[in-house]
Each structure stands twice: as C-alpha cells, then as structure tokens.
Design brief:
The protein is of the alpha+beta class. The chain is built from five helices and three strands; from the N terminus they run βαααββαα.
Length: about 140
C-alpha cells in the first residue's frame, strides 16, 4: 500500500474555544483534513498524468478517492477497494491515511515518490482549503 501522512496543528485562543462545541470542532477538523487530503490526492494524480509513464486509469483513479479519469488504458476501473482513504479521530487528533491500494502502488511510490511529490506541490493549497473549511464550519 502506498500512502502518506501529514499533520496539521490548529491553535485558537482559549476564549474562542469556549464559544464552540466539541462536535463542531471535530467536524471542522475532519472537514479540514479531508479537504487537504483531496488536494493532495488531486496533485498526485496530476503528477502521474504529467509524468506519462504510469498513466493507467486504475492507478490514477485509486489515489485517495475514486475518480473517473479514462487514462491511456482499457483496463479495469478503480473501486473503493482500490483506494486508501481512512480517517480516524481519537483524542482530539484527526488522521487521514491516503493513497492507493492497487497491487503495484508500493513499487510506483518507491520508484517515483509520487505521494511525496504531490505533497510538496500541494502543501500551500492544502493549508488554504483546510483553513477555509475551519472558518466556514466555525463561522469565523
């Protein structure tokens, strides 16, 4: 399984924290992490298409979430089972494990550093979409 992880630390003044329920904070955290993960997956998919050496619909469509890109192959389409997208929330920490579960994903990641390159390119946008989700949900 090829995957990656990124940590976000969001800090708020104590007086603001009292204005929000724990459920809203959890929802904002979850939406922020999911939005950032989608940006990361999208950027990684773009890199795969740009590199044009592993442009299969199964692999591209299995990174982070199922998409419908046709690719250059007539092979099988990605399903939820081909995707790594596992979100957990424990102890005030939300974690998203993201990547591809196709059998050859670890080989491609080891050879081309796709998720790492996607993270490098997407980090600024990931922060923006995460920030937007938090502000929207918490109405700040």
């Amino acid at each position: 399984m090829a995957n990656g992880a990124m940590s976000f630390n969001f800090k708020m003044p104590e007086e603001l924290m009292e204005q929000f329920s724990e459920s809203n904070l959890k929802k904002a955290r979850t939406k922020a992490v999911e939005a950032a993960g989608m940006v990361w997956a999208d950027e990684t998919k773009e890199i795969v298409m740009e590199d044009d050496h592993i442009n299969t619909s199964l692999f591209i469509n299995s990174i982070g979430y199922v998409t419908g890109f046709a690719g250059n192959s007539e092979g099988p389409r990605a399903t939820e089972g081909d995707v790594v997208h596992e979100i957990t929330d424990e102890g005030g920490k939300t974690t998203l494990q993201i990547g591809s579960a196709v059998s050859y994903a670890p080989v491609l990641e080891k050879r081309y550093n796709l998720m790492a390159r996607g993270l490098d390119r997407a980090q600024e946008r990931m922060n923006r979409v995460a920030d937007h989700q938090i502000k929207t949900i918490l109405k700040i």
